[in-house]
Design brief:
single chain; 424 residues; GMP Synthetase, Chain A, domain 3; 3 domains; 4-stranded mixed β-sheet; flat
Length: 424
């Protein structure tokens, strides 16, 4: 609420399906819009829209063993480990970011029944960290060994010697360290960055996500000779959905083309079952469409990183675990960033929290949240916040929810460290 002529009055104005007049927010394509103006350091704009229903939609998910996803995961796990260690030994999360990584593919000699690694794959995790605290300093060798162990847990079929891991950490810039270490109620933003989150998932988004998760589930992998580098692409035109799956088959578990073809057919049948159940309609699935008479998708370690594909942080799934070109998206890589102060990460988590509460507490069935930070300013005071919903929720309720979610900054940081958000 804001004081107008000595009295309390709402700080929003609404245009209701009519032509705009001077001073009114616009009506876009006949959709009602409303705006809430600055208060408490938050520039909040609220608009409404029709439900998300494009005639055509594409969605992609790169699975747990994809080289890009491996980079995201190990960068994020390194970030969480650094945050915990700094907090435990120095009393606070210090300046660091480890959101750069590259996985350079090696080489294999492979065929039905097995093969050998000709050249190891090389993963390099790169970032900045604080080394000026005598209580604790990052040990790059120990961190590399820790990351290699985690990589072997992600790829349980891999030969440990087939992958090498290095951690390159250097001292961060003094100006950014000063921003993060400033004694303020909330951290100061260390970047000018934006986040965009849309919830809930569409039918196609849910279907693509479910297919990859179920194919990669330990229960399925216990009975199917599949690797972990499973990629799923979904396309919808009207009500018709078609799914394309790339799924490596473990070379040591198929002795000939007949056994390979049977494994692929089993994957196709299971994927069609999962997709049809999730979508509530019949869904056609194609698996390993690139197979030729003399060329099939075999793997020794479970990932194409062994020979066929390189990986990099930020090239794979966006926040929420999908690549959704029909939705507003940020190209900011959340994985590996500082969970206390890097808005490229934390604003995605806050946007998710806002969307969940809006859907739970108002008549909005969908929400898209866009947040823009301002470097050097408190993270709880975004430069701009744009909340777009279906329905007609009370703007004051929306404002309260947004302020509550920004006010829970410590909780957001803790949930990020605990892995409660799907960052990739």
């Amino acid at each position: 609420m804001a004081c107008v002529n000595g009295s309390m009055a709402p700080r929003y104005r609404t245009a209701r399906h009519r032509g705009p007049s001077v001073g009114d927010p616009p009506v876009v394509d006949g959709v009602e819009t409303a705006s809430v103006y600055p208060a408490s350091g938050m520039n909040l704009s609220i608009t409404t829209r029709a439900p998300y229903a494009p005639e055509i939609e594409f969605v992609e998910r790169k699975g747990l063993g994809h080289p890009d996803t491996i980079c995201d995961r190990l960068a994020e796990e390194l970030a969480c480990h650094l945050a915990i260690q700094y907090e435990e030994h120095t009393g606070a999360i210090r300046h660091f970011n480890v959101d750069k990584a590259v996985l350079a593919a090696g080489a294999v000699d492979i065929g039905f029944g097995g093969g050998t690694h000709v050249k190891p794959s090389r993963l390099v995790l790169v970032g900045k960290a604080a080394f000026n605290f005598p209580q604790w300093k990052p040990d790059k060798k120990e961190l590399a060994e820790r990351s290699h162990k985690r990589l072997m847990e992600i790829l349980p079929d891999a030969d440990p010697d087939a992958y090498t891991v290095e951690v390159w950490l250097n001292k961060g810039s003094d100006d950014l360290a000063a921003v993060i270490d400033a004694e303020t109620v909330a951290p100061l933003a260390n970047d000018t960055s934006f986040a965009a989150v849309s919830m809930p998932r569409s039918v196609l988004e849910s279907t693509v996500h479910a297919v990859e998760m179920r194919l990669n589930d330990p229960a399925h992998r216990a009975v199917a000779p599949v690797g972990r580098d499973i990629k799923v692409m979904g396309a919808r035109k009207g009500d018709n959905i078609f799914i394309t799956v790339a799924c490596p088959i473990m070379a040591t578990k198929v002795q000939n083309r007949s056994e390979y073809d049977q494994a692929v057919n089993d994957v196709q049948a299971f994927a069609e079952q999962v997709a049809s159940e999730t979508a509530g309609r019949t869904v056609d699935v194609a698996v390993n469409q690139a197979d030729q008479e003399e060329s099939v998708y075999l793997t020794l370690s479970g990932s194409s990183a062994e020979a066929g594909d390189d990986g990099q942080v930020g090239r794979g799934n966006r926040f929420g675990g999908l690549i959704t070109p029909y939705r507003p998206m940020s190209l900011e890589a959340a994985a590996g960033k500082n969970p206390a102060a890097h808005v490229g990460k934390t604003y995605h988590a806050i946007a998710f929290d806002i969307s969940q509460r809006l859907i739970a507490e108002t008549d909005a069935t969908e929400a898209t949240i866009r947040l823009l930070s301002s470097i050097g300013h408190p993270v709880t005071e975004p430069q701009e916040a744009h909340i777009e919903t279906t329905g007609s929720p009370d703007p004051l309720v929306i404002e309260r929810i947004a302020e509550d979610c920004f006010g829970d900054w410590a909780g957001v940081t803790r949930r990020l460290i605990d892995g409660e958000y799907e960052l990739y």
